[in-house]
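Students often ask why we bother predicting the structure of a whole assembly rather than each chain alone. The short answer is interfaces. A chain on its own may look different once its partners are present, and contacts between molecules only exist in the joint model. In this exercise we take two input lines together and write out one structure for the complete complex. Read the inputs first and try to guess which parts will touch.
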Amino acid sequence: MSPKMRKLSLPGLLFLLLFTTSPTISIMAQSSGSENTITVGLFILLALVFISGVMLVSDNLLGLQARRYGIDDLDKDKQGGFLKMFSDKRPDYVDGSFTRLKEGYDIKLKGEARSEIRDAMVSTVALQPPNFIGMSPIPKVVVEEGAEVRAGDPIFFDKKRPEISYVAPVSGEVVGINRGSKRAITEVVILVDVEQRYREIPEIDLASISREDLVKFLLDTGGWPLLRQRPYDIVPAPSSTPANIFVSTFDSAPLAPDQSLILKGQEVAFQKGLDLLARLTEGTVHLGLDGRGAEAPMAFADFNATKHYFAGPHPAGNVGVQMHHVAPVNNVDKAWTLGVQEVITLGKLLTERKYDARRVVALTGDGFSDPHYVRTYQGAKIADLIKDQTNQDGLRIISGDVLSGEQKDEEHFLNFTSDQITIISEGHEYELLGWLLPFKARPSVSRSFPNFLFPNEPLSPTTNTHGEERAFVVTGQYESMLPMDVYPQHLMKAILANDFERMEGLGIYELSEEDVALAEFACTSKQPLQHILREGLNFMREQG
Amino acid sequence: MSKLLDFVKKIEPKKGTFVHTLYDGLFTFLYSPDEVTHGGTHIKDGMDLKRTMVLVVIALQLCYLFGTYNIGHQHYVAIGEHTSFMEGFYLKLFFGLGKLLPIFIISNVVGLGIEFFYAWKKGHSIEEGFLVSGALIPLIMPPDIPIWILVLAVAFAVWIGKEAFGGTGMNIWNIALLARVFVFFAYPTTISGDEVWVSGLASTAPGSPVEYGLYHDACNWLFGLFGADGFDAVSSVVDGYTGATPLSLAFQGGWEAVTQVYSESQMLWGAIPGSIGETSKPLIIIGAIILLAVGIASWRIMAGMLLGAVICGMLLNGWGATPFMAVPWHYHLYMGSFFFAMVFMATDPVTAASTNVGKWIYGFMIGMVGLIVRILNPAYPEGWMLAILFMNTFAPLIDHYVIEANMKKRLKRA
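Now the answer. The structure tokens for the assembled complex follow.
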């Protein structure tokens, strides 16, 4: 049975049951005068429960019998059985653990990027201190305006942790050190050279180098800031050792880029990066793979790391969700994560001995007239990337996806880890009785809009809030949008109440903004969950 | 379209006045605002609280239609005219409207009035909570409730039950049930016995006359224009009529006493005396299907409550000490307001347990406790109101233990 047919089998079976039992009910109700519909209905229900019970038991007996005949290694998928109708099949290609997640929702939007990568001409790129959570607002900038830098040369460091150097993604002239409110440094802008020059990186031997030296190597060459530590999603402290390292190789967010396309041609560097990561942890390097399709995620299937397949709707691709199901983090067992392109950059420190911050970025959303991929640099200027690509005015530019990305101006720069720009229409419009009559199809997890009947039909969303902020009323909604064993609503209330113990107990360490973003989208009361969560995480971080 | 919008925006009163709060409430009712997202997610779900609430109100509409008509039908059954259900259609409908409309209008004016007042006082926009409460309250009131009692009950429920706790989303007890429980305990002499369930009579004793007023005269004049018969003020209650509800009959004489007066199909379809919206089971179930289909009400609570009531009913059947206990468990679903309580009252998300496990426990306990109150306690004819309020009180406790378990599990792992 194909997965598609299996999906149909359960509703089909129910329909068949209803179809056959409903005439029986009516006949029985008429023939036995004193009996009545509810009683008969209940009896039929009991009969159904009984029949399923019998089927279940016989299924197990069959298994026992098979074992008695020495068929120990029963292939559950090839074996016919009653339970199989209800249990999901694990795809044939899976060569690791497999987790099917039920909670969540896939938001289908118009403007998916075509699988074509073009080269983009970028005038400037920027390294932005605000991209690094927890960094002091005024880092020490070690270059001056007008200075020439090579790719990989240090640009600034955090005064609290001077040993981590944040390095230039490209070679060129430093043309601006821009400041925001309270003189905080928002971006260090570099004018990109036509011919890229790279800082020479010393050769190391992964097999023989000590962990200490490897850390020093990463701190010095700019590889360290590519790492993120959960909890808190911060650049890890140089002295820390992660319990595990996680890399998610697929992104399930709306219009997210296809990581296997990005990987193409970089396989050697990716594997080298994984090898490097394996030296940094005493635990394991875990790779989260896409188990949603009927086909194996070919690009990622052959790497040397512990593999975990995940199937289900967004946020199945979120590394936080995957970590929760493999090895949950907490205050003691910290884990590090990084994206596919960051691993490639790490690998190239070894294979090509240079800090190569080239990035493939997906231009997505129905604000683009021709959504596709571009090859550019980390922190590229947005105006250069989207020039002559948009089809109208009044658009919202987002560095990242529509759920957890950051709103940007044309004059701004791509965020440090962004591999996607999404452009959608702004929604400054009043709608007559908009809460009652949906004139335009809109994404919604509720089944009260007619477009829920066509879940695969992509929609063009706007940034309208579709309602005002209200108190928490509806319950169970967040839980159904987050495939983790946490109670998001109670966690949010604990954060709002600054209840330290409860936050810890309810699993705040396991969450990052992107994990609750879908719940924030779905929230009937329009509560700012990502903001609340970050407040809580900041509070916990300051408490230590 | 935009002209209307321009006009509506032109008449916006000064901010901070009560009129502005009122205007704002009505404006957001007419137009969904042009607000866009900032920070956080860039797109938001089309669902908001207004739509959620209105869908519940839509699910209640069949109960409203049937309830209105049934008020008139019960009235005519009592005086022995038009005893077949569809006979005298317009008379029953207009009679019912004459009873229902004042109850509906008064409870909404009082409730929304208090809500608007607090929105203005606290300077926030009007939250939609009362939209559902205001639709539920008329349906759980007896048709002959005096208006002044209704006013007090609604004011008590909204004021003490909701605003004192901080408004929508903060209340501990179900607002609609608080109004009902207020009527029940504050005016036991007015609202007790069999009299209040059938309206428009001086008393349900045989021979007592009907009470028609100005409204009925006006209707008579209207009907006269079309040459139709009007309300006949000389009618009186027929011999042998008691007006007793199935529950009070069952309490006195078990299931046999019930079936002597009401047939099963009558009880199923709801052509029996009772609170306005509670009687027709199929229509309530249609409402339940609507709520479950759009995913607003919790199926866990409903299933838990059904399970609790069935199990408790079976246990009491096994005991069987009184005729009421011996009433077969499945007949208990026919009588009283079990389905209405299950679909519309227990599932109120604010006052119910908020964890999925907690919802099962909460629903199950309501089913158990409600049936115990109904059968074992001679003072209360029906148990669901008290059971739900009781479990509302304990819902935070249930959640507390569910969450503690989750926290313990996590701490153990660490």
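Check your guess against this: The CA atoms of residues 68 and 96 of chain B lie 5 Å apart.
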